[in-house]
Amino acid sequence: MSGTSRPPRRLAREEKTIAAMIALYCRDHHETTASDAGDGLCDQCAELLAYARLRLEKCRYGADKPTCANCETHCYRPAMRERVREVMRYSGPRMLRRHPVLAVAHLADGRKTPT
Fold this sequence. Notes:
Blueprint: H1 9-29, H2 43-57, H3 78-98, H4 100-111
Helix pairs in contact: 1-2, 1-3, 1-4, 3-4
């Protein structure tokens, strides 16, 4: 996230989660050397990560943001939303083994009732 102030913990964790998911997907599908920090991504995946970060930064709900699946406002362009779905379908099941804390936190966030 850019800016001078630190993002709320939940948003920072959500950014870390999507970065890890995209890195996992990119490494396994695009033969890159993507690390979990998100560097080493192919151009397509780097673009997707930058877009996801921008959407998180500009989210109208801020720290009270629900998970995207539970959100009433779909702010991703349709093509980008489909790309993120593809990444999540692949990476989601693998996150429990690779990043169990992030995966469990994301699942818990998804159980919360949107405000």
